[in-house]
Design a protein that fits this description.
Largest sheet: 8 strands, antiparallel
Number of strands: 44
Strand content: 35-45%
Number of helices: 4
Helix content: under 10%
Structural class: mainly beta
C-alpha cells in the first residue's frame, strides 16, 4: 500500500492506533486526542470537514497495513543485527540482498563505502535542529559519507527540514596521521536524512545508530506550546503572505497555550519555523533572523512533581477517573503533551514504564505548575561522595549497585567525567526500577543525573531565568555558535578545569553576568561577534531573561538564548574562572 494512504493528514506521520471519519479518511491516535479536547466546531475531519461522532471509529485495515510495515522493518533489522545484508521484500514474500541494492543505489553518487542498508528509506517531513557544534555536519550529495561534498556545513542551532530517513552501515577508510598509512577500515551505523529542496538537495548525518551513538541533530517534535510573544498572527496557510484568519481566531496572545501538529522550516523567508495548529491555521514559532522564540514547547522527557499532591488520571480529560496521586518530588516520563481548552490546562501522557495515564502540567485557570520539566542542554558534573569521577556508559539502564554508574551490567564504560566539567544532554529518561534519572550525551553514551531515592544530584543544569549583566558591554549575536575556538576538550580527564572552582585565575578580567537564581559570574571576555551576526550590545546592569543554555565543546563555553532574541556567551572556560554568586539579602 502507498505510504500516502497511511499518513495522517494532520501531522504527516504514520502511526497507530488509527481512526477514521464517516467518509473513511484516517487520522492517527495522538492527533485524535488533540482534536477530542477542542471546542465542538474544531472536532471535524481534517480532510472533508465532517463532524466526528461521540464514539471513535477504528480503521483496522490501515492498522493492519501499518503493523505489516513495522514487522517488515523489524525482520530487516533482525537480519541486519546478525550480520546479514538480506532483508524481507515488501509483504514478506521473499528475501532480497541489500548489498546489491546498496551497490546499485550509490553508483550514481560514486559511493562504494555503504556496506549495507540497515533500514530502507522512509519518507517523512520532520523538523530537525543541529546540535553538534564545530561545523561538523556536512551536506553530501548522496546517503553515503563518501559521496560528493556540498559547498556548506550546518552550524549549531540551525534548523533543517528532513524529507527522507534511512539507516546504513558505512565503512570508514581511516588514515594514520603520523605515517600517512591507511589503517584497518572501521564500520559504523549512521542514520542519514535527506534535506528539503528549499535547503538544497543533499544528505546529512542525524546520529550514529544505536543507543550510545553520537547525536548530530535532534527531532523538534510537535505538541503543546505556550505563546511567548505579546501576540502572534494566525494565517490560513504555511505561506507568510497568506491572509489572516478572521476575528479572534486570527490572533493568539502571550501566555495562551496551543497544540501544534506539524512544524515546517522556511529558509527563504527569514529562516523562520512555522507551526500548524490543531484548530487550523499556521503561526510563526521561531524567527531565525533574530533568534527569537515566539512560542515555547512543553517538551517530552522527564518531569518532576512540584505540587504537594498530583493526580494521575486514566484519560486526557482532567475529569476522568483518577488512578493515583503522587507527592512532590516524584519523577515521571512524559511521552506526549496535549492542551485541553475545556479544562484550561496542558496535559501530559505518561509512558507505560512509569504506569501510564495522564497528568496536568500547567493549569491556566490559576497558573499553577503541577510538574516541572528537567531541562536539556548544558549540565555541570558534581563531585561524588567517594571522590570518583562520574562514568558514561553504553546503555541508559543497569545502574543499580553503584552510585557512579560503574556497574559492569551496563555493557562497559565509555569514559569518566571529572567533577566540575560541563556536558551537553540531548535526552533524559527515568528508570523507575532504579529510581534514577539518566541523560544521553551529545557525544554518545548515558550518565546519571539524579537519584530520586537518595536525593543525590550527579549533575545539575545551568539555570535559566533572569540575569543581570555586570560587564561594561556584552555582544548579542543571532547565531548560537561562538566563533572563538579552543584546542582542548574540557571534559577530558586530567586536562579539565572546573568552571565553578577556586577563585584564582591566570588573568583577572571583569565580571560579566550574574544570575538572580544563583548561577555564575564569568570572568571570560566575550567571543568575537562579527561572524556570529552581532545585533546589539547590552550595557552594564541590563536585565535579561535566559530561556536555554548549551555547552559547546569546540568553543569550551556555555551559550545562552535570550527571551528577547539572540545568543550570548554565559560561561567561558578559556579566559578565567567562574564562581557562584548569591544575590539578595
Amino acid at each position: 500500500m502507498n505510504d500516502d494512504l497511511l499518513t495522517c493528514p494532520v501531522c504527516l506521520e504514520i502511526g497507530t492506533p488509527t481512526f477514521q471519519c464517516l467518509h473513511g479518511h484516517i487520522v492517527c491516535g495522538p492527533c485524535m486526542d488533540r482534536l477530542a479536547v477542542q471546542p465542538e466546531r474544531f472536532r471535524v475531519c481534517p480532510t472533508c470537514r465532517v463532524k466526528y461522532g461521540k464514539e471513535r471509529i477504528r480503521c483496522l485495515v490501515a492498522e493492519a497495513f501499518i503493523e505489516a510495515r513495522a514487522n517488515e522493518h523489524a525482520a530487516t533489522e533482525s537480519l541486519a543485527s546478525s550480520g546479514s545484508t538480506r532483508r524481507l521484500s515488501p509483504g514478506g514474500t521473499s528475501v532480497v540482498d541489500d548489498a546489491a541494492i546498496a551497490a546499485a543505489a550509490v553508483t550514481s553518487e560514486q559511493d562504494t563505502n555503504i556496506v549495507r542498508i540497515i533500514r530502507r528509506p522512509e519518507r517523512v517531513s520532520r523538523l530537525y535542529q543541529i546540535v553538534a557544534d564545530g561545523n561538523v555536519v556536512e551536506v553530501r550529495a548522496g546517503p553515503g559519507m563518501s559521496s560528493k561534498k556540498r559547498s556548506r556545513k550546518l552550524p549549531f542551532g540551525s534548523y533543517v527540514q528532513i524529507m527522507e530517513i534511512m539507516t546504513i552501515e558505512h565503512r570508514d577508510e581511516a588514515v594514520s596521521p603520523s605515517k600517512g598509512k591507511k589503517k584497518k577500515p572501521t564500520r559504523r551505523g549512521l542514520i542519514r536524512g535527506r534535506l528539503d529542496a528549499a535547503m538544497g538537495e543533499g544528505w546529512i548525518t542525524l546520529s550514529e545508530s544505536g543507543i550510545s551513538g553520537r547525536t548530530y541533530a535532534v527531532h523538534v517534535e510537535p505538541g503543546s506550546y505556550q505563546v511567548a510573544a505579546p501576540s502572534v498572527a494566525v494565517t490560513s496557510s504555511l505561506n507568510l503572505d497568506s491572509e489572516r484568519l478572521p476575528g479572534d481566531d486570527g490572533t493568539i496572545r502571550s501566555g495562551d497555550c496551543i497544540d501544534i501538529v506539524a512544524l515546517r522550516h522556511l529558509p527563504s523567508r527569514g529562516d523562520r519555523v512555522r507551526g500548524k495548529l490543531a484548530t487550523g491555521g499556521w503561526i510563526t514559532v521561531l524567527d531565525g533572523q533574530n533568534g527569537r522564540e515566539l512560542a515555547r514547547p512543553f517538551r517530552r522527557g522527564v518531569y518532576a512533581t512540584v505540587a504537594r499532591s498530583t493526580e494521575i488520571t486514566d484519560g486526557v480529560r482532567r475529569a476522568t477517573i483518577g488512578k493515583k496521586r503522587l507527592e512532590a518530588g516524584r519523577c515521571m516520563q512524559i511521552i506526549n503533551t496535549v492542551y485541553s481548552p475545556q479544562d484550561g490546562c496542558v496535559r501530559g501522557q505518561l509512558s507505560s514504564a512509569t504506569g501510564g495515564g495522564w497528568v496536568s502540567i500547567l493549569d491556566k485557570t490559576d497558573w499553577r505548575i503541577h510538574v516541572q520539566f528537567l531541562p536539556l542542554g548544558a549540565y555541570q558534573i558534581h563531585a561524588s561522595r567517594s571522590g570518583e569521577p562520574l562514568h558514561v556508559r553504553m546503555r541508559p539502564g543497569g545502574c543499580t549497585g553503584n552510585s557512579n554508574g560503574r556497574s559492569s551490567a551496563s555493557g562497559g564504560n565509555l569514559r569518566p567525567i571529572p567533577a566540575g566539567s560541563y556536558i551537553e544532554v540531548v535526552e533524559t529518561t527515568y528508570i523507575d526500577r532504579e529510581n534514577m534519572v539518566r541523560g544521553r550525551l551529545l557525544s554518545g553514551g548515558w550518565c546519571n543525573l539524579l537519584d530520586t531515592l537518595s536525593g543525590i544530584v550527579y549533575a545539575s543544569p545551568v539555570p535559566t531565568g533572569v540575569y543581570i549583566t555586570t560587564d561594561v558591554s556584552i555582544s548579542v549575536q543571532t547565531r548560537a555558535e561562538s566563533s572563538t575556538s579552543s584546542g582542548t576538550d574540557n571534559v577530558t580527564a586530567g586536562r579539565s578545569r572546573s568552571l565553578t572552582g577556586a577563585a584564582t585565575a591566570a588573568n583577572t578580567t571583569k565580571e560579566r553576568s550574574q544570575s538572580l537564581t544563583g548561577a555564575m559570574i564569568t570572568t571570560a571576555s566575550p567571543s568575537s561577534a562579527e561572524s556570529n551576526g552581532k545585533v546589539k550590545t547590552l550595557p552594564r546592569y541590563s536585565t535579561i531573561e535566559v530561556t536555554e543554555c548549551h555547552f559547546l565543546k569546540t568553543n569550551k563555553c556555555v551559550r545562552a538564548r535570550l527571551a528577547s532574541g539572540g545568543w550570548i556567551t554565559l560561561i567561558n572556560a578559556t579566559g578565567g574562572v567562574a564562581k557562584p554568586i548569591m544575590v539578595g539579602p
